[in-house]
């Protein structure tokens, strides 16, 4: 696919910034959606933090603002890099709050990204959402996180199916990291084995390779990201 326009939800976060940077390196126009602007992006859609948990309000706001940005050029790729983490078992006093937070950060953003893709993705374009390797099975110590990420996996497979609303030839994929090498993870896990952590640039490069046709993505594919001794593989679950 020729250089085009990419939309990155969560484009001001650690992973989002890396993805924005890789698309810009490939000379794509890039629109970032986040609560703060990314100066490296071509366009920025800045959201209201106060409405983060209101899916209908945030979704409608994004649709309106995306419509102003798209105009005559639809997206070649739509990526949701937004998310978060919260631990806790079913007995945790913060369970309800954490489920609400994880749903807003991972599920709501993914639903909005998927709907924008259905409305504004080019034929043959790419939709990529960020899931989690841990959510392919039970997560008793982080119930809210696993619940939200498992929903993202289901959304990708629904989007990949016939009649989902995605344009002809479009592909929906999910990236399922084990641990990403982010400044926040290094801060809270200073003694970890970083050789098993996946660099943000590696994930960003894979998404850009899919979007540009340099690498083939499987429609509906849930790609577990496995890094060992500094080498990374993307394995379909």
TrEMBL record:
Q: Which PANTHER family match?
A: DIHYDROPTERIDINE REDUCTASE (PTHR15104:SF0)
GO terms in the biological process aspect are: L-phenylalanine catabolic process; tetrahydrobiopterin biosynthetic process
* Family (UniProt): Belongs to the short-chain dehydrogenases/reductases (SDR) family.
Protein name, please?
Dihydropteridine reductase
**GO-annotated cellular components:** cytoplasm
Q: What is its EC number?
A: 1.5.1.34
User: Quaternary structure?
Assistant: Homodimer.
Keywords (alphabetical) are: NADP, Oxidoreductase, Tetrahydrobiopterin biosynthesis
Give the coiled coil ranges.
none
Q: What Pfam families does the database record attribute to this sequence? A: adh_short
Family matches, as SUPFAM superfamilies: NAD(P)-binding Rossmann-fold domains
Tell me the InterPro entries matching this sequence: NAD(P)-bd_dom_sf, SDR_fam
What organism is recorded for this protein?
Spizellomyces punctatus (strain DAOM BR117)
Where does the source fall among the domains of life? Eukaryota
Q: Name one GO molecular function term.
A: 6,7-dihydropteridine reductase activity
């Amino acid at each position: 696919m020729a250089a085009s326009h990419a939309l990155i939800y969560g484009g001001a976060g650690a992973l989002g910034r890396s993805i924005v940077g890789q698309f810009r390196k490939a000379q794509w126009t890039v629109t970032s959606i986040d609560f703060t602007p990314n100066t490296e992006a071509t366009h920025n859609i800045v959201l209201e933090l106060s409405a983060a948990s209101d899916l209908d309000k945030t979704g409608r706001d994004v649709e309106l603002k995306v419509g102003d940005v798209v105009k005559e050029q639809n997206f070649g790729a739509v990526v949701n890099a937004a998310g978060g983490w919260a631990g806790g078992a079913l007995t945790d006093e913060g369970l309800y709050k954490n489920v609400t937070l994880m749903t807003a950060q991972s599920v709501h953003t993914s639903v909005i990204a998927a709907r924008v893709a259905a409305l504004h993705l080019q034929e043959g374009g790419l939709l990529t959402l960020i899931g989690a390797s841990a959510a392919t099975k039970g997560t008793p110590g982080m119930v809210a996180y696993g619940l939200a990420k498992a929903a993202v996996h289901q959304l990708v497979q629904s989007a990949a199916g016939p009649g989902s609303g995605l344009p002809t030839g479009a592909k929906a994929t999910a990236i399922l990291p084990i641990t990403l090498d982010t400044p926040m993870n290094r801060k809270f896990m200073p003694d970890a084995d970083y050789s098993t952590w996946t660099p943000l640039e590696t994930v960003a490069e894979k998404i850009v390779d899919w979007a540009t046709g340099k690498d083939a993505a499987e429609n509906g594919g849930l790609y577990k990201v496995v890094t060992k001794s500094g080498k990374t593989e993307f394995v379909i679950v």
